[in-house]
Design goal:
Blueprint: E1 29-32, E2 35-38, H1 45-54, E3 59-67, E4 86-94, E5 99-107, E6 113-115, H2 125-135, E7 138-140
Parallel strand pairs: 2-5, 6-7
Antiparallel strand pairs: 1-2, 3-4, 4-5
Length: about 180
């Protein structure tokens, strides 16, 4: 996914929805493909989500993560946001305003944790479990942070970029043996 920089001088920038929402403070904002993206610090993630929910962003339509493997991988971040290996990406909708906002939270590899949004948006329960299972990011405060896709005894997190590629032999019913 390619992020776009703010429009050049002389070009009309999209209006910032976040600008008029009380409780957001000075959260860095960028725009990607015409969509507003907020970049809260990890410790402000829940407070920003709460302020957005109070401002009619009542639906969390998606929550996922990205593994950049190295913090230096190319990506557009606003000034003041430090790139980390992982990024939790949350999409919130306001049906009343007919708007969609994205939150991008940087999560360091050395402390792969993020606060849960479960108590604000109960629909995130399985989404956070999926991110935990596949990326190894633990959502602090989640009521059931257990694997959801992989077996409980599975070691590792398959969507991490440094996860080894393996091969599972497949046996087909009524197929001739190996050639």
């Amino acid at each position: 996914m390619t992020e776009t920089a703010p429009p050049a001088t002389g070009v009309v920038a999209p209006a910032s929805v976040a600008h008029g929402i009380a409780g957001l403070g000075d959260v860095p904002v960028s725009f990607s493909r015409g969509q507003e993206v907020l970049h809260p610090a990890r410790d402000r993630y829940v407070a920003v989500a709460q302020a957005l929910k109070e401002a009619a962003f009542v639906t969390c339509s998606d929550l996922t993560a990205t593994d950049y493997l190295t913090a230096q991988e190319a990506r557009a971040l606003p000034e003041g946001v430090t790139a980390e290996r992982f990024e939790v990406v949350t999409t919130l909708l306001s049906h009343e305003r007919r708007l969609r906002l994205r939150l991008r939270v940087q999560v360091p590899e050395t402390d792969a944790t993020c606060p849960t949004l479960f108590f604000l948006y109960p629909g995130t329960e399985n989404l956070e479990r999926e991110v935990f299972d596949l990326f190894g990011i633990d959502f602090v405060g989640h009521p059931d942070m257990t694997r959801i896709l992989m077996p409980e005894e599975w070691e590792g997190h398959p969507l991490r970029k440094d996860y080894g590629m393996g091969r599972v032999p497949v046996q087909f019913k009524d197929a001739p043996g190996p050639r």
